[in-house]
């Protein structure tokens, strides 16, 4: 702490801002000196980057040409004439379509014998393709490939092929061929500095097409000392022994075996003597920064004091209004403090309300639990049966409370209430048919309806339809029109069938109390219970207002 205090003593914000301005300005001079020394290196780096980008741009141009040729081959491969074996019509159609281009199409069989060549009239005797190595490689790979440059037998020119293998006979492959001199039209040095050349190199390292002062002809081997270094997808090559005072950029054509290269002399840009101007400008900048820091410090000091006053008043419990300053961020802090003071007041009110609600709900739950245990104690003949009965009812009550808690006691979907209680009996999921229009149920209604459903399901699993595999239960609810009653009514129906024969119990237990008296009272309605021989029928007619959350 003493060391920190030594470097950062107690001082006004103005002092710290002025010190910060000076501390920033002092390294500027060293930085400017470093910039002057590294300017040439930066220019070289920029030239290297631009050279690689120019090579990449050229590769994209050549890639588009090769892709266009590949697309043409795919279209020709699916032509009806070729599929029907009508090579004469295919030759005529293809020769007409490509008449305005410098491209020619060759069809060969698996042995490399030319079946047609649009450089010659159809029916002219033709030999095998001159580049059998490229054809065999394509047939082995099964994909479209571009060949190395070679001397064509038919044209007598340096050409290259793009070959599409086919699984059909007799045409095993389609080839588009083009003279290398025609591809040269795409190899341009526009945009490059004077004295730069550009070339396309095939997989074997021979020039396919080139332009520029180097004047490389098609088929010429590119410098073998350079090719081994061109292994990355793109980059630059510089070697004062091989290319003195020159730079070479290259790029692999994506999806093809060719590369594009550009190379030329490095332009040595002269560095102007601007150090005096930079120093004078730096001193002026420091003076302006100090004056500006002092002016800003005064403004910031006033703003901080206003914000601190707001915070003090907020700490005393007041709802504070935001102050208006010339600093946007300070205004945002002031608004945040004002909102926080208002939110704190609301939160305190909400906490008081929540505490009141918690006390109210706790009392209701305890009252319900006490009443339930009193009723069960009267009907239980042993401690064990009393414990089991209490545990079973509490489990149903806990299920409703967990559901309400997950929704923050804001009401729960009626369908979820039904599902969570009836599906608590996994063996009966396929035996219960549930239907009715869904709506949000009040928290109190969730507990009361949950108790009734739990009792109905428990009784059915023990004695009713859910106690046997063939038993079925239909539980539905629907609106009931009542012309003589102004309140909207809902009717819940629990109907069992397919279970053991039903007889009316001789005495009324806690479960009957829950599904009849408690349900009728809780929902201000009526409950009808019919112990039919074929299965229990329970009907609750309740006021919708006691269930639905507004």
TrEMBL record:
GO molecular function list: ATP binding; protein histidine kinase activity
Classification via PANTHER family: HISTIDINE KINASE, TWO-COMPONENT SYSTEM SENSOR PROTEIN
Transmembrane segments annotated in the record for this chain: 16-39, 277-297
Name listed for the protein in its UniProt record: histidine kinase
UniProt entry tagged with the keyword Transferase: yes
InterPro entries: HATPase_C_sf (IPR036890), Sig_transdc_His_kinase_HWE (IPR011102)
Organism encoding this protein: Rhizobium esperanzae
Keyword Ligase assigned: no
Domain of life: Bacteria
Enzyme Commission (EC) number: 2.7.13.3
Catalysed transformations (reactions): ATP + protein L-histidine = ADP + protein N-phospho-L-histidine
Broad EC category: transferase
Pfam families: HWE_HK (PF07536)
Domain (Signal transduction histidine kinase HWE region): residue spans on this chain: 357-438
Keywords: ATP-binding, Kinase, Membrane, Nucleotide-binding, Phosphoprotein, Transferase, Transmembrane, Transmembrane helix
């Amino acid at each position: 702490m003493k060391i920190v205090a030594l470097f950062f003593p107690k001082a006004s914000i103005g002092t710290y801002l002025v010190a910060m301005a000076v501390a920033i300005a002092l390294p500027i001079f060293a930085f400017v000196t470093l910039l002057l020394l590294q300017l040439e290196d930066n220019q070289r780096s920029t030239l290297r980057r631009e050279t690689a980008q120019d090579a990449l741009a050229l590769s994209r141009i050549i890639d588009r040409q090769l892709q266009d040729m590949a697309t043409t081959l795919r279209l020709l491969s699916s032509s009806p004439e070729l599929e029907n074996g009508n090579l004469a019509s295919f030759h005529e159609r293809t020769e007409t379509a490509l008449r305005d281009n410098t491209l020619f199409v060759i069809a060969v069989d698996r042995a490399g014998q030319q079946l047609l060549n649009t450089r010659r009239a159809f029916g002219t005797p033709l030999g095998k393709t001159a580049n059998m190595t490229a054809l065999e490689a394509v047939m082995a790979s099964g994909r479209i490939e571009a060949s190395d440059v070679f001397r064509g037998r038919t044209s007598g020119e340096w050409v290259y092929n793009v070959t599409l293998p086919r699984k059909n006979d007799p045409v095993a492959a389609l080839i588009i061929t083009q003279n290398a001199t025609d591809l040269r039209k795409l190899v341009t040095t526009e945009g490059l500095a004077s004295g730069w050349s550009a070339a396309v190199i095939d997989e074997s390292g021979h020039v396919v097409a080139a332009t520029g002062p180097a004047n490389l002809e098609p088929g010429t081997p590119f410098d073998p000392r350079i090719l081994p270094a061109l292994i990355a997808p793109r980059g630059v090559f510089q070697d004062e022994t091989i290319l003195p005072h020159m730079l070479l950029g290259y790029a692999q054509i994506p999806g093809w075996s060719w590369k594009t290269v550009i190379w030329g002399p490095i332009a040595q840009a002269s560095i102007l003597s601007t150090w005096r101007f930079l120093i004078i400008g730096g001193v002026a900048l420091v003076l302006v920064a100090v004056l500006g820091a002092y002016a800003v410090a005064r403004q910031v000091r006033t703003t901080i004091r206003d914000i601190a006053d707001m915070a003090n008043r907020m700490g005393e419990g007041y709802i504070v209004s935001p102050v208006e300053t010339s600093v946007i961020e300070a205004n945002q802090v002031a608004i945040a403090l004002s909102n926080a003071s208002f939110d704190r007041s609301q939160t305190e009110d909400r906490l008081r309300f929540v505490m009141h609600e918690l006390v109210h709900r706790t009392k209701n739950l305890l009252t319900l639990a006490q009443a339930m245990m009193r009723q069960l104690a009267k009907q239980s003949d042993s401690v064990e049966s009393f414990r089991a009965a209490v545990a079973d009812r509490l489990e149903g009550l806990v299920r409703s409370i967990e559901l309400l808690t997950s929704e923050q006691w804001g009401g729960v979907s009626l369908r979820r209430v039904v599902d969570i209680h009836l599906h608590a009996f996994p063996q009966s999921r396929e035996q219960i048919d549930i239907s009715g229009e869904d709506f949000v149920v009040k928290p109190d209604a969730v507990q009361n309806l949950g108790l009734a459903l739990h009792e109905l399901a428990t009784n059915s699993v023990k004695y009713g339809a859910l106690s046997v595999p063939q038993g079925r239960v239909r539980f539905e609810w629907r609106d009931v029109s009542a012309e003589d009653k102004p309140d909207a009514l809902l009717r819940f129906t629990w109907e069992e069938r397919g279970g053991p024969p039903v007889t009316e119990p001789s005495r009324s237990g806690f479960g009957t109390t829950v599904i009849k008296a408690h349900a009728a009272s809780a929902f201000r309605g009526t409950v009808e219970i019919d112990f039919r021989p074929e299965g229990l029928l329970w009907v609750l007619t309740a006021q919708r207002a006691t269930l639905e959350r507004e």
